[in-house]
Description:
Helix content: 40-55%
Structural class: mainly alpha
Strand content: under 5%
Distance between the termini: 87 Å
Order of helices and strands: HHHH
Number of strands: 0
Low-confidence stretches: none
Shape: elongated
Number of helices: 4
Amino acid sequence: xxxxxxxxxxxxxxxxxxxxxxxNESFSQVIMRAHWRNESATAAALLDALAELPTVSADVLxxxxxxxxxxxxxxxQWRPGxxxxxxxxxx
Length: 91
């Protein structure tokens, strides 16, 4: 039987070791016993997952809209706080 050497982190090693049914069960046997998900992500699965989420109330949406309307960039992008007046250059 051909083999392949791999590196795994210590947490993965401990999980494999703990999953053995007997002390002499090989890691290959543990891995072959594993059940891997064969489901692929689909738009239908996404819609089903979204349907399970709670809806946002109208009050929360209104507060978010209000906060977005109140948000504005500073008058002077180089200085924080209230708008500053331009400096006059004297030469």
